[in-house]
């Protein structure tokens, strides 16, 4: 079971980018899905999280600019980033709390991380 993030790149200040995070493998259920970012020399921080019921939390720094959504049928989460600022520059990681049921009936919970995608905001 893996997460694959995509959609990063270079944007100008005020521009937009959309990140996607897709799951692969046999997943029974997904609880929270979210995005975190880590700038050079800083700790990884939460950007936005959406739980299975649709409740959403945002970091104060992105409220009003970023939106998060999830497609429960496809187990994909998206982060739409608008009005980008240079301080949004970071590596963005997707995260998901998943439950897997194996062929032998074992039930396992995993806290998965994607590989990270670079977002650079610069003129």
What secondary-structure arrangement, pairings included, does this model have?
Layout: E1 2-6, E2 9-11, E3 17-24, E4 29-38, E5 45-50, E6 56-58, E7 66-71, E8 76-81, E9 90-101, E10 107-113, E11 117-121
Parallel strand pairs: 2-11
Antiparallel strand pairs: 1-3, 3-8, 4-5, 4-9, 5-6, 7-8, 9-10, 9-11
Please characterize this protein's 3D structure:
With 123 residues, this protein is mainly β. 0% of the residues lie in helices and 58% in strands. It is built from no helices and eleven strands. Strands 2, 4, 5, 6, 9, 10 and 11 form a seven-stranded mixed β-sheet that branches. A four-stranded antiparallel β-sheet has the order 1-3-8-7, with no helix packed on it. A hairpin with a 6-residue loop joins β4 and β5. It is elongated and about 55 Å long. It starts with a strand and ends with a strand.
On the 0 to 100 scale, the average pLDDT is: 94
- Cα end-to-end separation: 38 Å
Question: Main sheet, how many strands, which sense, barrel?
Answer: 7 strands, mixed
Compute the number of strand runs: 11
Instruction: Tell me the overall shape.
Output: elongated
Q: Indicate the radius of gyration in whole angstroms.
A: 15 Å
Q: Which percent band covers the strand fraction?
A: over 45%
How many helical elements? 0
Contiguous low-pLDDT stretches (5 residues minimum) are none
Question: Which percent range fits the helix content?
Answer: under 10%
Structural class: mainly beta
């Amino acid at each position: 079971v893996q997460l694959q993030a995509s959609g990063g790149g270079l944007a100008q200040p005020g521009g937009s980018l959309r990140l996607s995070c897709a799951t692969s493998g046999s997943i029974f259920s997904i609880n929270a899905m979210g995005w975190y970012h880590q700038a050079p020399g800083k700790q990884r921080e939460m950007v936005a999280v959406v739980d299975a019921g649709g409740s959403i939390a945002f970091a104060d720094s992105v409220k009003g600019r970023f939106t998060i959504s999830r497609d429960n049928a496809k187990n994909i989460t998206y982060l739409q980033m608008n009005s980008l600022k240079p301080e949004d520059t970071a590596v963005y990681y997707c995260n998901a709390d998943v439950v897997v049921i194996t062929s032998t009936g074992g039930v396992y919970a995993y806290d998965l991380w994607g590989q990270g995608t670079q977002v650079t905001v610069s003129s």
